[in-house]
Write a structure and sequence with these properties.
The structure is a homodimer of 244-residue chains. With 244 residues, chain A is an alpha/beta fold. The first copy, chain A, has nine helices and eleven strands.
Chain lengths: 244, 244
């Protein structure tokens, strides 16, 4: 059973209130790093896996993509995407695990913070490789393995509620985690950095970039608690290119 | 001032008693993974940075290297290396930061658990790139950024002395850490995974492998406390290849 948490009314409502949902790309703390890793979209056929509200789809279109396809399991997300973004973007309501595009369908595949909801990463990479053009590019972000390892996704506190440090445990146990996100219970899948990188290499990708983003400099001074984001990595951004 | 902790009598004596010092490669918990990442040494000119007792130098020689050079800052380490390994291996007593070999001096550069003692990783990568042959290979291990982040290099315990989890803090603060190793104070340098990988990419390497090793299966059952090694990554192994 593939998880469709974003069609849950309460969760969706909370997600819609997040800064990244309201403000789009500029409201996402990792965007300033992710954007540097994106290829030139001009004339490219672009696929976005787990496209959500369609912010990245619209960006690709704005920057010259010839065609853009967004895939998401959640009907609610896609309704929002259709309302907010260009009608030329093709949205498909489908679990990303079920994509089955013909060879050479896309020149660029992107995915933002979606793969940690997927149990079998290697299968996804295989499907991406299968539908990408020769030397096609693949850029994605996920929650960092250090962030997903414990499962609780919270700091370790002292008796006074101060954040002492970030706890890591069960790192090499790759499996489901019952995480808390927006006060709700959400299933995520923890996997190691080794798995993320090795699966890409094994399936014929060259790793062209790997970045653990820190927040934009001005957020550190203006957003409460943001300096704690320098204490542990929360996200992992990887870019790759098909070697043949 | 480059650190030469291994010429400290007490530290050296303790280091010499470690399983990896007494037993060599088979006594090192990461060797079974590192060995898979090493290239075919046959006919190659090999450099080992921070060669210590010379175990990896001897391995390269045993597996067909045409010539082997080991560099280490510690005279004590090199005395041991000379006593234990083949006289055809050339040992140079020098901080690895000071190497200055001509272009195309080596086909393979290896380094085992030494770069976390070095302040400027990118400088080392530049020097490695400069002396490697075209498409030359570079394989190294370091302590994992998750292991070096806090500096204390110890678990977080409960009141009864149980290991609760591994603490992570100051992850994005790349600087010196006063670590405890073998009960002694040792200076190490923490840097992020981003830095390790990005520096390699920036200096013209393709990343061909990235592994966070777990202990050999049989150690988990025979060595006390070894199962805790599955709770957090301790080492990071990376292999790369000059792209031109």
């Amino acid at each position: 059973m593939k998880q469709n948490k974003y069609d849950d009314d309460v969760f969706f409502s909370k997600y819609s209130k997040m800064r990244r949902s309201r403000e789009g790309l500029e409201g996402a703390g990792e965007w300033h790093e992710l954007v540097k890793m994106l290829p030139d979209f001009h004339g490219k056929r672009v696929l976005d896996l787990g496209c959500g509200f369609g912010w990245h789809c619209q960006y690709a279109l704005d920057y010259g993509a010839r065609s853009v396809t967004g895939v998401d399991i959640s009907e609610k997300m896609l309704l929002e995407a259709k309302a907010r973004t260009s009608p030329v973007i093709r949205y498909i309501c489908l679990p990303m695990e079920d994509i089955d595009f013909p060879a050479d369908s896309f020149d660029v595949v992107i995915s933002s913070l979606a793969f940690h909801y997927v149990q079998f990463f290697k299968d996804i990479v295989g499907k991406v490789a299968a539908c990408l053009s020769s030397h096609g590019e693949f850029v994605f972000s996920v929650e960092h393995p250090i962030f997903t390892a414990c499962g609780t996704q919270d700091w370790h506190y002292d008796g006074q509620g101060n954040r002492l440090h970030w706890p890591v445990d069960q790192y090499f146990t790759e499996s489901k985690r019952d995480a808390r996100f927006l006060g709700e219970s959400v299933t995520k899948y923890h996997r190691t950095l080794t798995t993320y990188v090795s699966n890409l290499l094994e399936l014929g990708f060259e790793v062209t970039g790997l970045v653990e983003p820190t927040p934009p400099e001005d957020w550190l001074h203006t957003v409460s608690g943001m300096s704690d984001e320098l204490r542990r990595p929360m996200m992992l951004l990887i870019s790759g290119k098909r070697k043949s």
